[in-house]
Design a protein that fits this description.
mainly alpha
């Protein structure tokens, strides 16, 4: 891994993450401790260090580890660990852009496509972040992300996915956008075009006004209108996009409620330094149970301790 590669990512996190930079950070000390832990297969020490450092700090640990031992840290983890804990710690070692590229690649790997994971990433990342993720995808997989997405999707859904990947903020008029979306729903066959064009080319403040205005005009929730007028993957895509415009934290909290480990780990690792506190709050409001308590019911052993460390605390 090129040590400068991860620096291209915008690392100026807000304060709504659960994982923060470790204040008394000594990468050489961490690397030595990890080396001893790998030899003893001491998962407790590996979890303690890797879940209590920021991603940028983990990159420095991996670099220092290689300099001291002439070995690759990821390869060492694969040898010492197995199962879900191994997968989680390897994910924590990936720089943010590489990790999102990895999640997209996994969603398209093998038989069938995990459309909702594609949508989750494309709907919750900014246009700038997606361009950087595309570059990372090309760097690691030697393939063009847009072409790969087109190969996995078809029809209006493919058009929506590509528009999301290339999303931008173009100034628009709220009333005109409400009219366009309203008109697209009024014919015998709903038009996909205006939904794709408007929902992938305006900022979220503008779109929230448009969606609110559309609900006022039609007398029904946007979700209900989409269910009546569209079908299949395209309907799913629009519904996810609308949820992510209106309240991305609630959408991600609902995803956590599936209790599927790849989804839970994916969201927690991806959002740990960004906005996991907001997702935790949304989860508590939706379920009446804290995410911390839910994880304790679902996982056990060292894997549980790693998940709890990323979640950070009870709500």
């Amino acid at each position: 891994m090129d040590p400068d590669y991860f620096k291209s990512y915008d690392m100026c996190w807000g304060t709504l993450g659960t994982v923060r930079p470790f204040s008394n950070f000594h990468p050489d000390r961490d690397a030595m401790e990890i080396q001893a832990a790998l030899e003893k297969k001491d998962a407790v020490t590996l979890v303690r260090i890797l879940t209590n450092r920021s991603n940028a700090q983990r990159q420095l640990i991996a670099k220092t580890f290689e300099e001291i031992t002439q070995r690759d840290l990821a390869a060492g983890l694969k040898k010492a660990l197995s199962g879900e804990l191994e997968a989680l710690l390897l994910e924590l070692l990936m720089p943010p852009l590489e990790y999102e590229a990895h999640r997209l690649q996994q969603a398209m790997a093998g038989l069938g496509t995990d459309e909702e994971t594609l949508l989750e990433i494309l709907c919750t990342q900014s246009g700038k972040q997606l361009q950087e993720i595309s570059a990372s995808y090309r760097h690691f997989y030697k393939k063009d992300l847009e072409k790969e997405l087109k190969g996995e999707t078809s029809g209006d859904f493919a058009k929506l996915i590509v528009a999301l990947l290339n999303k931008e903020n173009v100034a628009g008029d709220v009333q005109r956008d409400i009219k366009s979306l309203s008109a697209s729903l009024n014919g015998k066959k709903a038009e996909a075009g205006p939904w794709i064009e408007i929902l992938t080319s305006r900022d979220s403040d503008h779109l929230n006004k448009v969606l609110f205005g559309l609900e006022m005009e039609s007398g029904q929730m946007v979700d209900q209108a989409l269910e009546k007028k569209f079908t299949g993957d395209f309907q799913l895509g629009l519904k996810v996009l609308v949820q992510c415009i209106q309240n991305p934290d609630v959408y991600l909290a609902k995803r956590l409620m599936t209790k599927k480990t790849p989804i839970v780990q994916g969201i927690m690792v991806s959002h740990s330094e960004d906005d996991l506190l907001c997702i935790r709050a949304a989860y508590l409001k939706l379920t009446g149970m804290s995410l911390y308590s839910a994880l304790q019911k679902q996982y056990k052993g060292d894997h549980l301790q790693a998940m709890l460390a990323i979640c950070r605390s009870e709500d």
